[in-house]
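Now for our specimen.

. . .
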Amino acid sequence: MINKKLSSTSDLWWEKYQKDILHTGLDTECGTVVGLSEGLLEYKSINGKLIPVRTNKEGTLPKEAYEACASKYCNYPELNKFVFGEMPRNWLCGVTKSAFIGHASNEQIRRTGASGGILSAVLIHLLNTNKISGVICLKMDEHKPWKAVPHIAKTKEQIIASAGSVYSATPTNTILKSLKNEEGHLAYIGLPDQVAAIRKLQKMEHPTVKNIKYVFGPYTGTQMSFEAIKSFLRSHNIKNEEDISSLKYRAGEWPGHLEIQLKDGKTLKAEKFHYNYLIPFFITSSSLQVPDFTNELTDLSVGDAWSPALEKQRGGYSVILARKPETKNLLLNMQKQDLLTLKQISIEEALNMHGHMLDFKKRGSFIRNSWKKVSPEYGYRPVGITKGRITIEWCLWAFFFIGKQRFSRWIIEHLPISIIGPAFNTLRKGWKYISKPTKRKGLRNQEFTVL
């Protein structure tokens, strides 16, 4: 159900937003429309999805709130020219000057991050050298510790406290409403759709983003709604998220585990690859829609460095893509100061670490979007996708469709995680093995056409 309430006067851009984005199911919950609405909109959770609805405030939605949204219209070729002055040579990863494997040299920073603590180390260095005065990022709410909220971290301690991944959809760009009066340069951390909206606003020279000097972000594959956490709680006979005193999505030794501490002193845990059993049941529509896996419009993007050798070493390793000469130099200077431990690798090696997800995004998302009544417009698309690859996508569609059903969710909530976690991990590995020949075939040589 979507709120169709309009203000007493004609509200052109709110009507267009509803017609083009909300009613078509394309909204990615990035927060931009609410952040730029001047208090006219707020988010309401409806069936596990965050939906912008009207508040009681009178007025009309600014044109920029509609135009900055990257959910339906996000011309990647144009934005690449604006941000980097060039088009990608490789559309799988976007414009990339250098690729690295590495981690923060400081062990505390390294181990508080989701993988190698690279972003935390870079942000702390920028803060210490007065390159920035703060970082727009997420933190867990002090009063609702199960909920992530956007804020501006202005100290090393606040940056460290904000480290780590958040796997529940969180509309970071709602913070735009409070950025006009900020002083000094800021760094921004966001997901691909959120970053795209920031770049659109920078292209528009909007005052809310005038102080954003650096744009960083994580690789982003699949994400779940907060309903996944609520389901996990119910499987442990916990009925209310308000029983949570602390929530960490990637706690402990890399690759980490879900860790939920309850107010009664109990702790619930699940290994990362076991907790992932919830993905088919609570995956967000934006995960299936957005074709950007490596956060292509950032200055610097970071992901887990998946390789058997590194995974055996533990500790935490990141794969890093520097997209501008300035960010490459920043990394190398930090390495000279022993702030980062880095090894330069080829772009091909970096891509090999995430072939499965690159295919899921760079071919799968375009297939899935072509099935929609209204498709998002990204300004480019892959060509020559085989019937075999489309068949693979139909199998995934069926899997996700079944996962959305109430009876499916009820069943997994009544199975012990000690059974369903390992079973899902085995199924995941089996599926990757079976589908790999089709999903990887031609991926590295996949051609794209600019529209």
Remarks:
- The chain has three domains: 12-67, 76-224+284-352, 355-450.
